[in-house]
Amino acid sequence: MSLPTTAAPPMPWQRLSPRMLLVHPVHEVLRQLPLLIGTLVLGSATGNPWWGVLVLVASVTFGILRWFLTTYRIAPEEIQLRSGVLRRTVLSLPRNRIRSVSTDARLLHRLLGLTVLRVSTSQEARGDGDFTLDGVAVEQVPRLRAVLLADSLAVTQQAGTPGRILARWHPRWLRYSPLSFTGLAMIAAAVGIAYQAGAPRALRDSTLTQSGLDVAQRVGAPAVAAAAIAVLAASVVLSVVRSLVTYGNLLLRRDGDLLHLEHGLLRVRENTFDMRRLRGGTLREALLVRAFGGARLDAVMTGVNGAGESSLLLPPCPAATAQAVLADLIANPDAVSGPLRGHGPAATRRRWIRALAIPAVLGIVAAVLGVPVWAWVAWAAVTVCCGLLAADRARSLGHRVSRGWLVARSGSLERRRDCIAGAGIVGWTVRQSWSQRRAGVATLIAATAAGVKSYEVIDVPAELAWSIAAAASPWVAHNRWARH
Q1: What is the pTM of this model?
Q2: Residues with Cβ < 8 Å from 143, sequence gap 6 or more?
Q3: Which of 62, 107, 294, 418 pairs as cysteine with 289 (C-beta 3.0–4.6 A)?
Q4: Dihedral of the CA atoms 138, 143, 147, 153 (nearest 10)?
């Protein structure tokens, strides 16, 4: 006769911090602000102001219900989240799929001692699949991070070391922020929103607009130049302020198998990555940032999107700093700063042909139409710029295989140097277009589960493509399809 077994008691469901009873209603009111304004206007026009009050009460009630109806629990094998007011959702994630834990504290959260904790797995999750705890008390974050990243953190805690600081933000980094044209993008976005809201029609007959047009007509070109300088100055200020607010106080620290990144002034963000999931890094060098000796560093890691801000380790900073951090992370300085093997004259010739094709067509059209002299001057300037671009793209192209690491570099407007661990590459593809076949070159694509999932070695000599793959991944040499 077998003895009855006693089942383990279920893990208790927990609620988030009660302080969210102050945050959720405010966020719901802000989210419903357009509807609230519309109902207030409608109420004033119809003499019934209660519509606005009703929307306000409903928004506050919805925010309060969100706290009561959101619970989570951490079981030995999985984590679960129950949420939703009108539509209930239960999200369950296996704990062995957790790759990173990040926090994001907006201004109101920081005032109340709260933060938003996000859990990332090997797959990108959005909407209902995003495991987010909004909000957790700041004092509970270390405990939750220790539980969710138990394996990695256990090694770090047993070692008893405080960790190493890999990089720290410096005010000198701000000099790179205007070179990315972020300020111009923000101005363009603001102009687009104003245009959609009907601002041009409202300002068309205003006194300010008329006086500005009169001044522009009297002064002429200097007024246009002054306006352009004002826009450029505003874009510089916006870029610097955004960079300072977003990346100020940045600290990148390694604690054993954990990589911890925190940055931000008003909105503090923290990311904790499992170093065992690291498969390399990418140095991104925008043209103007590179001209001033700068670079940005992104992580190539499973479970982290390699194309967005989630993969960022260092914003535009001195290239030497980014290279030193990447060399420390992958323990291979040659892969980060060592010389690369060029791809030969055929690849260079393709860069020049593609860059000068448009100026050649424009020159033929200009000769047929008989354009004035100033148009030929503009054509010459465009041709020189395209030639410089071709030369830079040809000079940037290269690759190497170093101690089990694949390195590929390409691009000019944004030059990339991808350092990918050969052990993390799960497949290879050799692709040839019609023009590549005629030139005798090919694009070698390394597939991996990390980052952007595929990394290209562009326009390598076709006869060397599979030997490069075999050098980075020895298992390719034993594949009969690769040999034949």
Answers
A1: 0.78
A2: none
A3: 294
A4: 100
